[in-house]
Structures are given as structure tokens and as C-alpha cells.
Design brief:
Layout: H1 3-22, H2 30-45, H3 52-58
Helix pairs in contact: 1-2
Length: 61
């Protein structure tokens, strides 16, 4: 696993935690959470020079 991929996954998990604190969402199982973060990370990693915050925000529009 490369460093950019790992850093992106960690950042998505942190951003999700912040967003969840500001807008309480229902509980999701760990496996589903991991799946979501992995999907987002895979999609973001395939982008060229993407803005991670804009990408994250687009997931909730």
C-alpha cells in the first residue's frame, strides 16, 4: 500500500468522524465503514491532483 493511499484513507476516516460529530448519523457497522472508506480512497486515488476536501463534500451532496 503506498503512502498517498494510506494517508488518504486516514484523512477520509478523520473527516467522516468530524462530519459525524457535526451531523449525528445513524450507527454503521465497522465492516460497512471500512468498505465506504476503501471505496472513497480507491476512487480518489484514481483521480489526478484531486482536492480531497471537495471530493469528500461531494459524497454528501
Amino acid at each position: 500500500m503506498n503512502e498517498k493511499y494510506l494517508n488518504s484513507a486516514i484523512l477520509f476516516a478523520r473527516l467522516y468522524g468530524i462530519a459525524e460529530t457535526l451531523n449525528p448519523w445513524g450507527y454503521i457497522e465497522n465492516e460497512k465503514f471500512i468498505y465506504i472508506i476503501r471505496e472513497w480512497t480507491d476512487e480518489f486515488a484514481s483521480m489526478e491532483n484531486g482536492d480531497i476536501l471537495k471530493f469528500f463534500e461531494s459524497k454528501f451532496e
